[in-house]
Amino acid sequence: DSGVTQTPKHLITATGQRVTLRCSPRSGDLSVYWYQQSLDQGLQFLIQYYNGEERAKGNILERFSAQQFPDLHSELNLSSLELGDSALYFCASNNGGQGLNEQFFGPGTRLTVL
Amino acid sequence: DQQVKQNSPSLSVQEGRISILNCDYTNSMFDYFLWYKKYPAEGPTFLISISSIKDKNEDGRFTVFLNKSAKHLSLHIVPSQPGDSAVYFCAARDYNQGGKLIFGQGTELSVKP
After folding, report:
1. How far is the C-alpha of A57 from the C-alpha of A45, rounded, in Å?
2. Are B99 and A105 in contact (CB < 8 Å)?
């Protein structure tokens, strides 16, 4: 158990809909990262938040947005969903400081868009 | 633009033998390299890492080697055990980009008894 929790575990929805994925980082971790893993793909970095502020952005679509709240949990919002958005979405956390500190991953949310 | 590549999608090894997983990268600004292990229906789990200023790091049965001139790293597992069967991801960090990790596509290791 990494200490990172993600809800829901599974989500099935239709094209055009909007969903919200939730992540609670490990206790004490200030940084949250979101990744997408599509079929047969590696993990693609989407976005990072550090202590409530956006720190880095990857290939995140404009239809996707995220935020980190004062209690440090984060939400990833996916809107106008398309079939191609079906994927595993992982959240990871660390303390975001200097030096190496590995990211700890949650179990993921499997999104299926029908 | 695939900055981190794992060219072997799968590898099969006999129990007790050595498993060697390979990874190539293109960005000279990466400062750390990490290996993650992933079982089905679980998130990736950190395995071992190496700083770009080192060429070897060892932790029990796992050793990571870094060849900066070739922009290549490898993970050695000796001896391999059936419980090592999983997907292994190589990842690289560019601290100048906020510490995000760039992952390879993964190699599925199967260790046969």
Report:
1. 8
2. no
